[in-house]
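Hi R.,

As promised, here are both runs. First protein below:
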Amino acid sequence: MLKKIIPLAVLLSFSNLSVATVHLCPVSTKVTNGCSFDDIGENYGEFVESIAEVIASPYSGDFTPSCNAHDICYQTVGKTQQACDHEFRENLYDECGIDPLCKVYADTFVEAVQANGIDHYNYGVNTAISIAGHAESNIAVESCVTTPKYTDRYNPDMINYVKNEFNSRVGRNPTTAEEFDLLNLYSLNEIDSDDDYTNWTNSVVSHIQNNYLNTSGPEAIYYKQSETFRGYTQAFILHSDLSKGQPVNYKWHMAHNHQEEFDSDYRKTTPPAGGMMYINGYLRVDNNDGKDYIVIDESFYVNSCTSTPCDIEP
């Protein structure tokens, strides 16, 4: 849990692709290592590390899911250290249930990260900010396609806040580029991150008012519909003609054929005998005001149902 994250250069392995075959950007995996006390040994000596491991040993295995969640939280833009440590305690207590001794050990874990975790938190969030900034650059030149949600580096509350504030003040949803622009206003105070989220929300409001009030842009939207024959689902169609902005150009890029399709609809045939069906790729819409994207990553269990869609996998 308190182990250094792998270097950023290893995570950022993006490569430029030709405009004719623009693929989805790879997603950098967040690093987890359970309830590790490696850095205690590095900072305070092997004896203290061994004592810490002995103290933690009765419950460290049970605490692994919470420790991994804490590692992930420390690599998320928009999560303060205080919020991560608070969630860590709640998760540990949930795992402890009614065991009072377990909660004593849980408090020991939390106190350890509160006292010694700031360097790891700063490193993790700075790495996430760099990855998010690189993703925004990829969108600007369209070397590969991604969205803020697909990067898996932002606190979901941030994404919801941007969309709600933008919609209420501008009257439309932000494009992908506008969303990145507002999300990446987030700045980390490496001494004390407690006010970072509040400071960011204030900067979002002023940035919208100063830059976007009189703007318009396209909005990528799609919906699904099944195509049936004699009671059997033989294809799924993704319709994008509800996308906003005029005139809109459409571009589907789906993983199964690695070809671009310039049409409002995308059709994929289901497996002959039913079973799992995967729809992966992205939709790009553009007009004179800009461009917008939706990443599509869905799976269905296809059988003889005639409604849309049937037996969606969680």
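And here is the second one, sequence first, then its structure tokens:
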Amino acid sequence: MSARPLPLRILGTGEYRPVRILDSREFDARWGRSEGWTRRHAGVASRRVAGPDEAASAMAAAAARVALDRAGLAASELDAVLCANSVGEQAIPCTAALVHRRLGLQDSGITAYDVNATCLGFLVALDHAALAIAAGRWKRVLIVAAEVASAGLDPDDPDTAPLFGDGAAAVVVDGGDGDGAPALLAARLETYSAGADFCQVESGGTRIRIHEDPEAYVAGARFRMQGKATYRMAARLLPGFLERLFGDAGCALQDLAAFVPHQASAKALAHLEVALGLPATKLVRVLEDRGNQMAASLPVALNAAVEQGRLQRGDLVALVGSGAGLSFGGAVLRW
């Protein structure tokens, strides 16, 4: 059964890229590998690394300003600011409040809060915004995602250190203007918690307490990933998930103008292209010069598709990814 479309129009997108570029050849030199080994292994030629003055909220605000400018709006015209980071800038307050202040909204009373679904946070926030707009609660919403993955990586882990990158992206949405207008045709999130241990940052919550075991707390602050197990589970479950998503949307894969995936890894992108029979012209890739940017990955890739002129009004576009949990998420939009 097809889902009921929700009015949703993307008015503007934006991206912020940190200043420092970390080339994969630096990993080759660090690990004594031949030049090009890291690029082949991770599928990433370079990625950006945030500096001390590039906090997550600062990057998110910079991307937001670009999106707002493209939308022709001032921050004061928003009804809500949703932040979709996997890892917040700090435990309390939420990162959205920090972005809100950087945008000059500190005395506005405009709603701001975080939505955390790890790498799928942007999709959940987009669905949340569409539901609130359809209910008449909001008119215009800013969604931001900014990640400083480098803060939690083990620099000696060849599977994660060269794969992830830092950065931010933002979108501004409203409800469009009538029948046949841009819409969220379907959104779906499925969680299979049998894979909950596959991707973890164990510290930062209440289970590991710094005053009880400081060493365990420091060790738990590093990101750990069981890459092979994650890939196997995703490869097994993703086809069925996509079938249900497109069934909800009432369209088929071949109807899409663009397929925007979470930039999980080169292997995952290659699997998608082959398994789905996607033409290279439809699959949006930004992994090679950005790395996996966690929750920022999907809006960064969407912004790239917009800047490349790959989406025209009326086109169908799908955003699909996976995240820690293990969860799968997707949305189909009429642009």
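A quick note on the second one: The two ends are 22 Å apart (CA to CA). Let me know what you think.

Best,
J.
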